[in-house]
Description:
The chain has one domain (about 50-290): Rossmann fold, CATH 3.40.50.720. Helix 5 links the parallel strand 5 and strand 6. It has helices at about 65-75, 90-100, 115-130, 155-175, 200-220, 240-245, 250, 265-280, and strands at about 55-60, 80-85, 105-110, 135-140, 185-190, 230-235, 290. About 35% of the residues lie in helices and about 10% in strands.
Amino acid sequence: MSDQTTMQNPAKQYSKAQGQGDGTLQPEPGSDTTLNPRPDHGESSYKGLGRLKGRKALITGGDSGIGAAVAIAYAREGADVAISYLPEEEEDAKKILKLIEEAGQKALALPGDIKNEKTCKEIVQKTVDTFGAIDILVNNAGKQEFVGELQDVTSEQFQHTFQTNVFAMFWITQAAVPHMPEGASIINTTSIQSYQPSPGLLDYASTKGAITSFTKSLAKMLADKGIRVNAVAPGPIWTPLQPSHGQPPEKLQQFGENTPLGRAGQPAEVAPSYVFLASQESSYITAEVIGVTGGHHLP
């Protein structure tokens, strides 16, 4: 794991091997517990400074990958954190919930499939019932499946990707906003794929384009309510999304090498952007997208 406070060459902060698999695939939805090599979520390195003291956060996909790193960071910054996840991701979720509690914060487990509108409304209501409000909403859960040929993209896959990545974001946000006070923040996870889509990720890239537009439009809609809406666009980050059929086996072995920094990123390197956008330090930033891409710049 890397020291996040010592100045160093970012290209060498993590070895290439820490962000590449051996080509072995996992069944969806993937697991951090069995991911090899293990990613860095900031378990040992993230040091909080009280930026989010007293806040109440809801993070979708908070059991693993970027969502897990954000959950750890938010807790160490002083926020109570609710994480939603698929029931089959319980093992990963338990580890993150334990880390939230070890940071001295309340942790709320919200298992369920957010492709279902009823589930989306329920996780919001359970968060409000437990915490009293939602000060930070992170729409992060995502589905990605690599398919090389257009004719092989099934209607079921296309629909499920949009339900998970776009419809759930809409349903959860719509349910959450009435419970969000002035000064609250919504942060969506888009992607470099919104700007530089790869062949084989047609449905995924399309949803990320939709998330980017949703973010910018919603920010203008909610500005008069004092709620800011922004997004983070990660590049190649080593998470279970990649080996659970998000990339073909041959691409996993070179994952992230085509970035200017020459390596894949770690979830711990993405989480600080979510902290910044949730904190009052970013009070004049809304309708914006922050790229965490290893050098593949956004337009």
